[in-house]
Each structure stands twice: as C-alpha cells, then as structure tokens.
Amino acid sequence: MSDIKKVKVLILGSGPAGYTAAIYAARADLRPVMYTGMEMGGQLTTTTEVENYPGFPEMIDGPKLMEDMRKQAERFDTEINFGVATSVDFSKRPFKVIVDESQEVEAEAVIIATGATAQYLGLESETRLKGNGVSGCATCDGFFYKGKDVAVVGGGDTAAEEATYLANLCKKVYMIVRRDEFRASKAMQNRVFKTKNIEILWNTNTMEVLGDKVVNGVLLKNNKTGEESTIKVDGFFLAIGHKPNTSIFKEYLQLDEAGYIKTIPGSSRTQVEGVFASGDVQDKIYRQAVTAAGSGCMAAIDAERWLGDQ
To answer: Residues near 266 by Cβ (< 8 Å), separated by ≥ 6?
Structure first.
C-alpha cells in the first residue's frame, strides 16, 4: 500500500456529474481530487452525436463534450487521476477509499458519481456497432432515426416506454420480447398495444446485430420454433435495464431495490453525513447528461455547505 493521500473533497467518477461537481468544488476552493473510474467521461464517450445538451446548436460529439468538461475542471485546479475505487470505509471520518487496491485516500467529504452501466446482450456485433446504430438510450439517440425503422429489445416498463417514445419519431418500431408476455405494467402495456406502428415479436431472441459500419438489420430466432429470420432496421435499442455502479458502497449506504443510492429528497445527501451522490448512480428516472450535470452541481454545493458547518 502506497502513502496515504489526504484530500478535502474526493470525487469518484468522471461523467457529467463528476466533472460538474469538480468545477463547482474547485471554484469554491475545496481543492477536489477526482478518480475517473474505468471509463473516463462515462457513458457519453460511447455516444457520437449529442444534440440535446444545451448550448450546442450544431450538436457536439459525446467524447468532445466530456473532454471539454475535463479541461474546464482542470482549469480550476481539480486534480484528475485515472483510477477505480475498489473499496471504501464510510464508518467514520476521515472517510477511507482504496483506489486500484493499492492507493489509500482519506477524504473529509466524498462525492459519488460512479454512474450506471446499460446492460447489453453480450454480442460481439452489438459491442462493435455501439454508437453506430446500437444505443442504450432512446431519449438520447432516438432523434437520429426520425422516419426510419428501429428495434427495441426488452419487455419491461423501460422497453415499453422507449418503444412508445420512438414510435412518435420512427416509421416503425419492432419490440423484441424474449417471452410470450410483457413484464411491463398494465398501463405501459396498453400504451404499446394502442400504438399502431409498434410490432411486437414475441418469444424472440436476438442472435446478431447486422451491419458492417452501421446497423442495417437484426438476426432473430423464435424460441418456440427455432426458426431464424431477419428484420431491416437502422437502429437497435437496448432496454433491458441499467446496473448502477454501487457494489462497493452497499455496506454503508442505503440502496433501493435496483441498487441505486438513496439520497435525501431535494438534495444529494446520503444517510452518511459528508457523503453525497450525484448523476446516474442515484437517478434511474431521467438518466440524461444535463440532469447528471445538474446533480453534480448540487453535490458540490451540498458538500461546500456541509464542510462549512463542520
């Protein structure tokens, strides 16, 4: 174990929430130190075109937006390190965090912005075409498929919600459902059934996403008959859930049934005083870059005020 690193505000994660928290904390002279996590810049680094982030009328690449946020955080002297928090001890202050199983960090306050990871099917083609027709967020990327045919995988509320959202933009939406029934609530099922340009493919598994450089179809297999078929689509949307990156915090923080960190309503505060959560790690409803950035701002202000009261 290397020498203990002592910091005032430790930020875990480097998406819009983490970088925004860093900008605000640094400007408040809290000298924040950030560890980026495995994916520097978070989920937006897999999104090629961002059209719905305010201030960019001509659109901006996701990686470029994250790079600019990083530079802005560094401009105010945020110390940014590549590294992954592998364990924590929030039982007393200063809080202890181990990074990469070797670096011990002691922090007066911690802002968690470790995000959530969209769950994928695990296909090679799906990984290869991520950001080129394969997406885990309809509200982020749906606009690019206006007037086109797309497919949504999943049978729960998220899939039903994304399919009906896409149906307002797209010519046709295929819902690929593994079982012969939905897991979605009755209200969401009714919305799907009433939407004329949604076609439900029951008892169906995705075998492969088709396309060389961009998605142009999906290879399917019927679970009951074993018959294979293809559909032509330009977009392939995963809606089988997100997994919040919270496993190392479960001993100390309250998590909901899906593993998201519970925060005190109207704030970023957790039940452990001095530990704050922002972005997708505590938000399973909106999951947008702009809402993550807003909650990162909240976390930094909450941390600043809390430290001021100590």
So the answer is: none
